[in-house]
Specification:
The protein is mainly α and 265 residues long. The protein contains 13 helices and no strands.
Length: 265
């Protein structure tokens, strides 16, 4: 596409996130790196965000969770939290996705992201947020987690649990009880959204390729398409760099080949 078309398309996408009358968010670069602002509009929004395969809501949630997991892009996280609200993500779902960051990047990353979200929500008068009730804490967390693990990650997830039995069986139990029994079993967001944001976070982190493999299978297992999987990983080129996206895509290629091979038999 001609450069001008890409730029205009990017501005249109950016306008959906910030509102048509909002000031240009990259204007501060005009006196030092105007081309960086142009690249961000053309590539980040004209090329990436304009692609089919994921809704704008899904793209924003993937971006929010990835930036939360990375942990060093607070201004950009604040911008995309506001953008998620602007494209129709409910405050409750936004908060729940940030709770999910605990699984991908730990409590400090989730706590910092929640603090940023609190500022964004307070500016809009959207506090307090009524979060949906989670599963009954008194119920059998382990049994609930095993069912969720089997339904979401299937054989790939079970293999991870089995691999821990001879060295750290309690870690396996924590994954099942907390990761799947407590967090993945919460009513918001739906499982497909949880898998999209998990794939985005693991791709962006760049250090979790085995876990990315498990959750690439998981995204497909809960009804996501191959296009959704590819688009989620591709989007991370804009937020975590091309090496992270390339390494993530190599994992996706292997996962898809495994599934094609299994289907052939």
């Amino acid at each position: 596409m001609p450069t001008q078309d890409r730029y205009q398309r990017g501005l249109a996408q950016l306008g959906l996130l910030i509102g048509a009358d909002a000031p240009f968010p990259l204007a501060s670069l005009a006196d030092i790196a105007p081309d960086l602002a142009r690249f961000a509009v053309e590539f980040g929004y004209g090329d990436i965000h304009s692609r089919p395969g994921l809704s704008l809501r899904q793209r924003q949630l993937a971006t929010v969770v990835a930036l939360s997991a990375i942990g060093h892009a607070q201004p950009q996280l604040e911008f995309h939290l506001a953008g998620a609200l602007n494209v129709g993500v409910a405050p409750q779902e936004l908060v729940e996705c940030l709770l999910h960051v605990v699984i991908c990047a730990g409590f400090p990353a989730a706590l910092n992201a929640i603090a940023t979200a609190k500022q964004v929500l307070a500016q809009r008068g959207l506090l307090p947020v009524a979060s949906p009730l989670g599963p009954d804490a008194g119920a059998d967390r382990y049994a609930r987690g095993r069912l969720a693990l089997a339904a979401i990650d299937g054989a790939a997830g079970e293999a991870v649990i089995d691999s821990l039995q001879d060295i750290a069986p309690d870690l396996a139990r924590f994954i099942i009880e907390f990761g799947f029994g407590d967090l993945f079993s919460r009513p918001l967001p739906d499982l497909l959204t949880r898998e999209i944001v998990t794939v985005a976070a693991f791709t962006a982190l760049g250090t979790c390729l085995p876990q990315l493999r498990v959750h690439a299978h998981g995204l497909l297992n809960v009804g996501g398409s191959r296009e959704m999987l590819v688009e989620t990983v591709m989007q991370m080129a804009a937020y975590a760099g091309f090496p992270a996206a390339l390494n993530g895509m190599a994992v996706v290629r292997e996962v898809l080949a495994e599934r094609d091979g299994a289907a052939a038999h």
